[in-house]
Specification:
Pfam families: ABC1
Shape: globular
Radius of gyration: 23 Å
Strand order of the largest sheet: 3-4-5
Number of strands: 5
Organism: Bagarius yarrelli (Goonch)
Protein name: ABC1 atypical kinase-like domain-containing protein
Structural class: mainly alpha
Oligomer: single chain
């Protein structure tokens, strides 16, 4: 046997094989049995940090810059925009709500250039974060890698934002003095947070779409001249 990352890889033997912390062996019923050998790392994320992270992810998806700054600061980070790009592991265009799961060539070049040119600042951001957040970054990177390897079949940004909203809703319900332990009450509160997020997201997308159409119409009629930045927005 030999070690690989946090798990164990074993050579083929008569009764079992070991791979990535899982032991596969024949059970008493003659069927395959899985035994978890290595749980990996554990970290506790405080309620305040968890709430800030949930709200930050929601604000990034909605392009709420004021909220992005506030919740980044709650996590100890001043350079909020850099932190948000690190968290999503992709460039953020504040004038565009959509986020592609696979980076374009230009986006990949931007991220590589940013990592090289702002390495010291990136390290300062990581040092400013609560220690458990480093494991959060690692897990996010794992999810990203798996999604890309599978051809990006899901919108991981939207799914993680919805998960963050649900988590925030449940946390709020738990802290409420009104029947905090009633399952139905928690479900209703979480559902309401989901609805508010979806409405806010669709509202922002509709407003941007209407704005785009108006600008295109004005440009077509020769009423306004659009510069390069506006053309990029229209794309």
């Amino acid at each position: 046997m030999f070690k690989k990352q946090s798990g164990v890889i074993g050579m083929c033997t008569v009764n079992y094989r070991v791979a990535y912390g899982l032991l596969v062996r024949r059970g008493p019923d003659k069927k395959a049995e899985l035994v978890l050998l290595d749980h990996g790392l554990y970290e506790h994320l405080s309620k305040s940090d968890r709430a800030a992270l949930c709200q930050l992810w929601r604000s990034i998806i909605l392009r709420d810059e004021a909220a992005m700054k506030k919740y980044s600061n709650d996590l100890g980070v001043k350079d909020y925009f850099l932190f948000c790009e690190m968290l999503l592991q992709r460039p953020i265009n504040m004038r565009q709500l959509g986020l592609g799961n696979i980076l374009s060539h230009e986006e990949t070049s931007y991220m590589r250039s940013m990592a090289a040119q702002r390495f010291d600042t990136i390290m300062e951001v990581l040092k400013a974060l609560p220690r458990p957040m480093l494991l959060v970054f690692r897990n996010i990177n794992t999810v990203r890698s798996i999604n890309v390897a599978l051809g990006a079949p899901v919108d991981r940004y939207g799914l993680m934002a919805k998960s963050a909203v649900r988590g925030w809703g449940k946390a709020r319900a738990d802290e409420s003095r009104f029947l905090p332990r009633v399952t139905l009450y928690r479900w209703i509160w979480s559902f309401w947070e989901d609805v508010k997020f979806e409405c806010a997201l669709r509202s922002e997308m509709m407003m941007m779409s209407v704005t785009r159409c108006i600008l295109q119409l004005l440009s077509y009629c020769g009423i306004v001249a659009l510069d390069q930045d506006v053309y990029q927005y229209l794309k």
